[in-house]
Each structure stands twice: as C-alpha cells, then as structure tokens.
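Suppose you are handed only two things: the residues of a chain and a line of SMILES describing magnesium ion. What would the bound structure be? This form records exactly that question and the answer produced for it, so the two can be stored side by side and reused later without any lookup.

QUESTION INPUTS
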Amino acid sequence: MNENILLEMEHIKKEFPGVQALKDVSFQLRAGEVHALLGENGAGKSTLIKILGGIYPANSGAIRINGTPVTIASVQDAQKNGVSVIHQELVLVPHMTVAENIFLGREPTAPNRAVDFKKMNAEARGILDSFELDILPDGEVSSLTIAQQQMVEIIKALSFNARILVMDEPTSSLSEKDVGFLFDTIRKLKKNQVGIVYISHRMSELKRITDRITVIRDGEYIGTKETATATNDELIAMMVGRKLTNYYTRTYGEPGDPVLEVRNLSDGKLLKNVSFELRRGEILGFAGLVGAGRSEVMKCVFGIDPCIEGEILVDGKPVRISNPEAAMRLGIALVPESRKTEALFPEQSVMFNITIKALKAFIRGLLVDTDKELAITKEYVDTMAIKTPSYAQTVGNLSGGNQQKAVIGRWLATKPRILILDEPTRGVDVGAKAEIYAIMNELVKQGVSIIMISSELPEVINMGDRVIVMSGGKITACLPREDLSQEKIMQYATQLTV
Ligand SMILES: Nc1ncnc2c1ncn2[C@@H]1O[C@H](COP(=O)(O)OP(=O)(O)OP(=O)(O)O)[C@@H](O)[C@H]1O
Ligand SMILES: [Mg+2]
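ANSWER OUTPUT
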C-alpha cells in the first residue's frame, strides 16, 4: 500500500547534550490517516514532531512531503508546507487575548496596516462558534481553564487548514465531551484527506481514533501496526521491551481514623457544602467531569484558595490553613494538575525541582546540605524512574512525562501524611503509571492517606478504597469500593450538569 503517502520522515537523528533523543527513526503518514506515535516517556515522540514542526533541526535524515524533499527550519517553514502542530506543553501567550493568540503572526490588518482588532475578534468569534466553544475572543488566555486553553490551542492549529496536523497529547486535560468533539473533528479532517499524527498515552483513545500505530523506544523505531489488529499487550511489549504484568497494584487494608475532615466547605464561587473525610491508610478517589470543582476543593484544603465557609479538621482538631506552608506543616502535600503553570521551575535543574520543598520544610538556616540534597534527589529520581542524563539537567528539557514524575517526586520528598494527587498520571506512560500505582499502594500501607483526583475512571475504580463523585461544585455521591462502576460514577458525575 504505497498510495497516498503524504509525509515521509527518514532516518531522523537528533542529539541533545548527553542524550541521543532519536537514533534512526523513520515514519510515514498517509493522507486521510490517523497515525499514532506511541512510546514511553522520553522515547522521543515530541522530539520527532518538533523536528517536523520546525522547532528543532535534525542532525541528519530527510523529510519528504508528497514525495518532494523539504527543508523545515522554522515554524513558518512548517506552516508553508502545510504542517500544523498542537504541542504537548501549551504554548499560548497567557497575557494576550484568545483572538490574539489564534491569529498571532497573521493578524488581520486595517488599510493603515494597524491590527484590525474588530475584524480579528469577529473572525475568532466565528471560529469559536463553529466549534461551539463558549469562550470570549477578547478574554485573556490566562483567565481560561486549562481545558479551555487546550481547546484554543487545538482550534488555532486547525485554523491553518493544514494538510498535516500533529497532536501531541491533545486530550490530556479535556473533558469527555471535548474529547468526543475533538474526535468528531478528526473524523471530518480525515474525510478531507488531512493526515494526522496523534500522540497519546491513553491506549483506549488510540483504539478509538487511530488507523496505525508506530512504536518508538529509546529513540529507536520499533515497528508499525494496524490498530484494528494490534493488541494492547503486544503494543505495550513493543513500548517497554517486556511484558507488563500487574498494572494496578492494590492491597486493601482496614483504613484507620479520619486524618482529614472537610465540613460544609464553600468558596463563594463554585463549591457548595462540600463535606468528606479521609481516613488513615486509604486512597480516596475523586471523580467528576472537568470543571466539577475537584481541584478547587483541594486548593482550599491546601491553602491556595480561601474557603469562605466551612471547617477543616486534621486528626480531629480544627485547623486554619491560610497558605500552602501551613498545609505543609500539617503534613499535607498537593501535586497540582498543571505542572507547567503551577508546579515546575522549568529553568532550574532536576535536583532543584525535586529538593526545593523538602529542603524548605526540613532544613533550617541558610546553608544547604549538599549531601542531603544529593541523597534526596537520588532517592526520588530512582523511585520515580525519572529519565534524565544528570541531576543538573534543566527540568524543562525533560520529556513531558518525566517532568510530571519530577513534580510527584518533589512532593513525596516532603514525606507527607496526607498526599493529594491531582491527575497524577496525566501524560505518563503505561509503565510509569503502573509504577505510580505501586508507590501509592506502598504509601498507604505505611499509613499515608491519599486523595487521588482522576478523570480516568478505571484508575479511580481500581485504586480507590472509596470514590467521591462531584458535579457542579457539589458532592453527589460517595461510593464504597464494592459499588464502583464506570456507569454509576458517570451517572453521579453528570447529575447536576444536564
Ligand atoms: N531541549 C532539550 N534539551 C535536552 N534534552 C532534551 C530536550 N528535549 C528533549 N530532550 C530529551 O530527549 C529525550 C526524548 O524526549 P521527548 O520529549 O521527545 O520524549 P517523549 O517521547 O515526547 O516523552 P513524553 O511521553 O514524556 O512526552 C528525553 O530524554 C529528553 O530528556
Ligand atoms: Mg512528549
């Protein structure tokens, strides 16, 4: 089947200082095809598509589009060749408006050559409407939720009418509804013979939307399979180089006394009368649709946002948590949802990022104990299996999934008694997910209590002792383990929204 080949990337090599990110990768895309790139965190997926998108030059190799060799030395070159990329890390400019972001570098101008804001906003309005997005074109991007930002990023890429569209983890923070919407859009694009490169760690999504799957491992091409006939086991074995047994590790114990009680919490905005308790040694899942208020609850508990009404008790005693430092002193840690905006110091080293909270919490005075710093870094780079050439590596240069692992490692290093994880496995590969589950299980065995917010239902179902479901800022159910099913959770998750 050689017909309709839209894109060929051949023998691509790319080296970063200390890392051979791509050793010799070839990739082919047909017109009208959705072709997945699959591989572990750090395998080289984003690097390959950044080369296609003109972000990095390759060290060697060739790119052909419709059979013609092309040089892609810049984002503009990529666009000229009909390539549009939705990057894994959101690259919208936060303090510009939605419309300015969509039209960045190609703003409509008035006859006097000034930017025609009216026209730009009207055009943006048209695009947003055609995608049924309830977003204001002249609102600042920074005021949008992460899911909304991701949708803006997606429609921006679509508005270029690209022949080749690349999506690097486009669904990582989308709601099920938005995912459905994105997939409808993808199907339409396929009919118009657009070729789509699709990167995701969610195997179920790959099954739903892709035609072929190419696996890369450690910068090397492993193979290409037809989605219809490939099995999960086979793909995972190609990805990690071995069979993966025991995906969810969970040994259930008898949970102890309540360590955290939240009573009638309201934030004056979304949250109303939120009450729940977390017991010693349990995993309490928090399910719900994007926007249900799960992260908002945790931000109140962790002292990031004020709670207007309500009470929080730790170990049965009422506490006031007016900032994250106060929460940390009570043994609470929060791994936030968005590593890019809330968590990472991208310009700093892996060591700095992992030790920053632990050192602040445990070391008095100004002198940093380098041995301790090294020991903590080693422990959590190993525990989280973070792939990095050195501890001094700039964290922003790690692959997306490895950045996420660094953030989790940082909070584990504070040795919390109450660990709140907001979408901990987002963007993390299957092998690393299994490792995170095993670590969570180990922690609860040691008596740590964990809250896990997750939009992946199989994950809350398989890991939770109990699952709380939220909808429209309220708790709609608290389901015991025996009672958990995807249908039941979805029923309560949509209760107040439809
Ligand atoms: N700008 C950079 N400087 C140095 N090293 C880099 C840079 N970008 C990527 N790397 C390294 O190249 C390798 C491949 O990274 P890449 O981001 O392509 O992985 P990925 O397959 O997209 O992983 P993930 O699933 O985690 O997103 C990693 O070892 C990463 O640390
Ligand atoms: Mg990536």
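WHAT STANDS OUT: The chain has 17 helices and 20 strands. Residues 16, 19, 21, 39, 41-47, 88, 387, 397-402, 429 surround adenosine-5'-triphosphate (ligand 1) (CB under 6 Å).
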